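Lab meeting, item 3. Inverse folding demo.
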């Protein structure tokens, strides 16, 4: 999969490298670094190499080491993050690998990133990095800049967790009434009548798993009766929404879907009431779709959470921004994130820059507006959104599809709702 990723992203990186460092900078394969017949390629001369970054991490999970540790008398500490000062960074192209040192912080990247590195090879065979660049999206969105219908809105939420919803039934009821126009003053109802779509970004049925000593031992709900009840509650909830608004439904890490990315849509047979409406749309995870001439893309959160385990990028918003700069939805797949074993293609490459780029199931709401330059004076803005878990925060996110302004709306017992303006 890394070979397919590098092959697909290399042309874009060559363009980015020449734009950043000039047309005359030599771009070489790793095999050419050791050739001494040409003075231009001798060690000590600056050049650009392009490949996939790999991290050697001594703390990363290893099944053989885990078995060995369990046989020891002294208990071993259970780790949730696998970063240490002894980590090493390697660049791999189609034929070889080389150890990388210098101005690229190893804790700011993860395995699977395709990068262009400017630097030189030292006498010990290591490559000393002076500067670097990443591929980013291959092109700006091909859709029109302005939506066809101004004043339309996208509502996003995640982590409804109907398996453990006893404390959030009233906030969910308030959310449904708010979307369908039964809650709020006339001005709010008029605004909500312009909701173009409701996106549910994963963990609809379940949002957690049982664990023991930091290890996941069961991702199922306690018994089949609880699962059936949760699915019925979810079906009733979706049926109410789909009567009045289009719903885009994505699976999440703990939903009844396949484990490997891309997760396939939740089966319509699970939701007999809601599936009667053509306004229910099942999506994959990660997912990319169009609404009101805006390109929307993102995941239910697994890629962003995994980046935090294998690097020092623990802020979800920064991790989300980084994946956009890297040009890849899930760079750690298939290394540490389960993924279908694609060989000739990589479906997670960001080809068109989305207008709205999201990640679901986070502890709090975060947002930012970033601009990416594509050269020749062409640039595009992207609204980044970390969608909070509704079960934990009672919060959804609303994005204006015309201006890309973003705000969160919170539902709580005793109050109608509280709205907080996001970063513009």
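The presenter then showed the designed sequence:
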């Amino acid at each position: 999969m890394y070979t397919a990723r590098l092959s697909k992203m290399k042309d874009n990186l060559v363009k980015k490298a020449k734009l950043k460092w000039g047309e005359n900078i030599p771009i070489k394969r790793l095999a050419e670094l050791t050739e001494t017949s040409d003075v231009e390629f001798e060690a000590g001369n600056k050049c650009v190499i392009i490949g996939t970054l790999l991290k050697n991490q001594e703390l990363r999970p290893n099944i053989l080491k885990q078995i060995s540790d369990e046989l020891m008398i002294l208990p071993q500490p259970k780790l949730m993050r696998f970063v240490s000062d002894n980590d090493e960074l390697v660049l791999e192209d189609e034929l070889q690998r080389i150890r990388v040192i210098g101005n690229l912080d190893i804790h700011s990247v993860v395995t699977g990133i395709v990068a262009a590195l400017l630097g030189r090879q030292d006498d010990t065979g290591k490559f000393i990095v002076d500067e670097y660049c990443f591929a980013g999206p291959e092109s700006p969105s091909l859709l029109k800049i302005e939506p066809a219908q101004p004043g339309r809105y996208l509502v996003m939420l995640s982590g409804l967790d109907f398996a453990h919803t006893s404390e959030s039934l009233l906030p969910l009821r308030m959310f449904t009434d708010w979307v369908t126009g039964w809650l709020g003053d006339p001005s709010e109802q008029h605004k909500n009548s312009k909701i173009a779509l409701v996106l549910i970004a994963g963990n609809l049925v379940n949002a957690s798993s049982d664990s023991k000593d930091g290890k996941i031992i069961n991702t199922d709900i306690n018994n089949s009766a609880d699962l059936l009840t949760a699915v019925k509650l979810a079906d009733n909830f979706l049926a109410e929404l789909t009567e009045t608004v289009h719903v885009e439904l994505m699976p999440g890490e703990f939903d009844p879907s396949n484990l490997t990315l891309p997760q396939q849509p939740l089966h319509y047979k699970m939701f007999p009431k809601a599936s009667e409406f053509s306004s229910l749309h099942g999506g994959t995870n990660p997912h990319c779709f169009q609404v009101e001439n805006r390109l929307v893309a993102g995941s239910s959160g697994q890629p962003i959470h995994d980046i935090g385990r294998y690097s020092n990028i623990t802020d979800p918003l920064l991790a989300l921004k980084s994946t956009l700069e890297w040009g890849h939805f899930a760079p750690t797949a298939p290394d540490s994130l389960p993924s279908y074993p694609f060989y000739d293609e990589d479906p997670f490459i960001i080809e068109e820059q989305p207008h709205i780029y999201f990640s679901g199931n986070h502890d709090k709401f975060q947002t930012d507006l970033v601009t990416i330059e594509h050269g020749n004076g062409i640039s595009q803005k992207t609204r980044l959104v970390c969608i909070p878990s509704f079960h934990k925060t009672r919060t959804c996110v609303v994005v204006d599809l015309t201006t890309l302004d973003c705000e969160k709306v919170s539902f709580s017992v005793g109050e109608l709702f509280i709205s907080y303006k996001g970063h513009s």
